[in-house]
Amino acid sequence: MIINPMWGFPPINIGYGAQLGSAALAGMNSVSSTAMTDLLSRWLLVSHSRQLAISNPAASAAIDRYVGGVVGNGISLSAPESSNLIPPEYLWVQDVVYKRFSMTSLECALDRQGLLDFAQMQTLAIENMMLSGDIAFVRKPDEYSWTAVESDRIVSPYYMCDKTQPAIVDGIFKLINKENGNRIVDGVELDFEGRIAALWILKEYIEKPWMVSADQIERIPVTDDNGLPLCLFVFQPKRPAQYRGVPILSPVIEQLFLQSAYIQAEGNAAALQSSLYGFITSQKPVDDSTAPVLPNRMNEIVAVATNDEEENGGNEPSETPSFDVAYRGQEAYENIYHPKAKPVTSGRFMHLADGEDIKFLQSTHPNSNFAAYMSATTELIASAVGLPAEILKLSFNSSYSASRAAIIQAGQKYSQVRTHFIARFVRPVFEVFAYETLRESGVPDDAALYLSKALGSEVIWRAPKLAALDPKVELEAYKLAMEMGLVDADEVALAIYSHKATGTPKMEDNHNV
Question: With a threshold of 0.70, does the pTM exceed it?
Answer without folding.
Answer: yes
